[in-house]
Amino acid sequence: MKQVLTVAGSDSGGGAGIQADLKTFHANGTFGMSVITSVTAQNTQAVVEAFDLPVKIVVSQIEAVFDDFEVSAVKTGMLSSSDIVEAVADSLRERAIINLVVDPVMVSKSGFSLLKEEAVECLKDKLLPLCRVLTPNIPEAELLTGRKVESVEDAKAAGKEILEMGPEAVLVKGGHLEDRRQSIDVLVEKEGETFFEAERIETGNTHGTGCTYSAAIAAHLGLGKSLKNAVGSAKEYVTKAILHSLSIGHGHGPTNHFFFLGK
């Protein structure tokens, strides 16, 4: 069984972070492992507080996993500080990870900062050059480029600009684009662009969709698929997980990672 690692924060509400990643890895046929970078107090309504783990503990977790398992892919999520970003980047560079999916988690839906401002440049310099694919949503693409993204063409332009920062590919997710019946994601590579479309689902239950999407991409890369096929499979999975999302909690409910099991 292919083994896939998530390096991210913990969500006490269970809908995002490493909890979402582990569910996604297993739902997509891989064995999931985790390195926790930060512990958050959150639910479907808001992130209340976050506590970063010491860098030494983060690195020790990475070493423990790689000392024992054959890691076929890695996904990073909430890295919080420049010290953690740099330590994670150094650890992964030493191990020459080929299938690295970087989800540049920056701000929660409720507006809580999940990546310190001083860490953004460190993320660009240290981690982006290592990754197979970067998966920013529209607000994250805007923060990385400083440009407004309001259309698919804007997303494509932003993706091209981010590509110059070092990643092998950039998937700009279109879930935040307004006035569209379709949810269109743009995969930008040096060879050109590929568009992934799905019907937009009208629901407020979207907690953890970004984590789930990027984790599914990592799982399918770990299974040996090409990048385009991995993104296509992940897009299909996350769309169904949103379609069957769960109306639990009093805020944005989570996606249903095991929708195929029925009720």
CATH homologous superfamily grouping: Ribokinase
How many runs of DSSP E, i.e. beta strands?
9
Provide the residue-averaged pLDDT.
93
The number of helical elements comes to: 8
Radius of gyration: 17 Å
For the record, the count of structural domains works out to 1
The neighbouring-strand order within the major sheet is 3-2-1-4-5-6
- Enumerate the spans where pLDDT stays under 50 for 5 or more consecutive residues: none
Strand content: 15-25%
Order of helix and strand elements from N to C terminus: EHEEHEHEHEHHEEEHH
CATH architecture heading: 3-Layer(aba) Sandwich
The CATH C-level name is Alpha Beta
Query: Which structural class do the helices and strands define?
Result: alpha/beta
Keywords:
263 residues; alpha/beta; UDP-N-acetylmuramoyl-L-alanine:D-glutamate ligase; six-stranded mixed beta sheet; three-stranded antiparallel beta sheet; 8 helices; 22% strand
